[in-house]
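By convention, the token line describes the chain's fold. To illustrate:
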Amino acid sequence: MEWGEQVKQAAGIIADSEALLIAAGAGMGVDSGLPDFRGDEGFWNAYPPYRQLGLDFYSLANPEWFIADPALAWGFYGHRLGLYRRTAPHRGYALLRSWAGAKPGGHFVFTSNVDGQFQKAGFAEERVHECHGSIHHLQCAHGCPAAPWPAEALEVAVDEATMRAAPPLPDCPFCGRLARPNVLMFGDWGWRPQRSQAQALRLRDWLEGIAGRRLAVVECGAGTTVPSVRRMSERLLARPRTRLLRINAREPEAPEGQVGIGSGAQAALEAIAALIPAR
């Protein structure tokens, strides 16, 4: 194993820590079978109809579609909602949860993913900060001041040949106009951030409460294209007694003195887990 020494160091960091922050980007879900949207080809392989339309991920993840073409917008997000509901989290999530549950200082999750996989894997809602929102919650697409609401009862029928949603499309229960996911999109000035802001305050309070304790930051699948998670991980290194473990198949480079493993999340976490019981 070419990263054997890094795995040993990682096991030491996790075993010796008193608190655990799990930081996760889009690469975390790949081992669960979720599509890799990196690059146009990866996205179009997952969604061939968009190749014919010449639309890439960044073009579609734009709130303007909910005004210009609601059926196209909900085809994209409705299909993803169904996919995330059907997907079972890979074993790496359970390993992280077992380590987190053993820490006297507790744990927290910081993720740019909107898929809800950490909650599905058993992490408590109050221990997760979704910095880009959640596809499992909705908001009004027309600026209604209503707070986001759960999407549990929502079912969106999508024609997979055209990737367009069939009516009726989701509506806002407060004003009756079109609803959209409570997700931060590109160029999105209409996102309602209340849920994420409340999560951020809980994370801040937790970090203040573990001041002086040894903190391990385990970052999985967070790249530089959308750097929200990597920036958060590296900011925490200014905190005393904090170590960073970065797991990334393509961009594993870590700051000096920290540990980087060039691997997918599940394989690296399983390799680390094999060493932790012996410590």
Remarks:
- Residues 70-86 form the longest helix (17 residues).
- The chain has a mean pLDDT of 95.
